[in-house]
Design brief:
It is built from 8 helices and 12 strands. It is α/β, with parallel strands linked by helices. Strands 2-1-3-4-5 form a 5-stranded parallel beta sheet, with helices on both faces. The chain has a 4-stranded antiparallel beta sheet with strand order 6-7-8-9, covered by helices on one side. Helix 2 (33-42) packs parallel to helix 3 (59-68). The structure holds calcium ion (CA). The site of calcium ion has 5 residues, from loops.
Length: 222
């Protein structure tokens, strides 16, 4: 999953980049609202974390402009503790959730997971499930019928994306855009290797290859 973090407080941004990275998210970071206005609308982010007090364009205006331009990406706003007016304005402007600073990193992690499940119509799943598999996002492993299967970090990131999009045909370029941040070189051979490793661990039938089109995880009937 690829996230945009818009936060001008550098120590907090550094901390969030490190913790979100450990949780397997590819994160692009911007500190100025003017840069975020265009990039948030043009890059295919799965979720945006938005500070409200920003240089350039304030976070609230940014959110209003994104929403009026048709952007439907889930947005979680970061607000000052005690500022209920700010939270209400943010929710009215189209935020999906908020966190008050300072917050515990685990709370952000759980809110991100919940927002992403909700955005994919999976609000009923406290843990991601598809194709007979259950994903443990905290331990970054998967289980089938109670038997745990260990995953590398890269395998976990790909499998989480597949499980959020079960049954959908995903091209390699689409997968690369959502698994890597804007700075990382995208190599479709790496994706092929990862898909093959997941097939060996989970069973070849779990991921279908459509030649020239891409992959489909968890075809109906699995
Ligand atoms: Ca700020």
């Amino acid at each position: 999953m690829r996230l945009l973090l818009v936060e001008d407080h550098v120590p907090l941004a550094d901390e969030l980049l490190a913790s979100l990275g450990r949780q397997g998210y590819a994160v692009d970071w911007l500190a100025d609202g003017r840069d975020a206005l265009h990039q948030g609308a043009s890059e295919p982010y799965d979720l945006i974390i938005l500070d409200l007090g920003l240089p350039g364009i304030p976070g609230l205006e940014l959110l209003q402009r994104w929403r009026s331009g048709g952007l439907a990406t889930p947005v979680l706003i970061l607000t000052a503790r005690g500022s209920w007016a700010e939270r209400i304005e943010g929710l009215k402007a189209g935020a999906d959730d908020y966190l008050c600073k300072p917050f515990h990193p685990e709370e952000l992690q759980l809110r991100i997971q919940a927002l992403l499940r909700r955005a994919h119509g999976l609000a009923n799943q406290p843990q991601l499930q598809a194709a007979g598999l259950q994903l443990d996002e905290e331990r970054q492993c998967v289980s089938r019928a109670g038997v745990a299967i260990e995953l590398t970090g890269a395998e976990f990131r790909l499998l989480r994306y597949f499980m959020l999009h079960a049954g959908r045909l995903l091209s390699k370029s689409h997968l690369a855009e959502h698994l890597y941040d804007g700075e990382t070189a995208r190599d479709s051979n790496v994706l092929e290797v990862l898909v093959n490793r997941l097939r060996r661990k989970l069973g070849a039938e779990v991921i279908e290859t459509r030649r020239g089109q891409g992959y489909r995880f968890g075809a109906p009937g699995l």
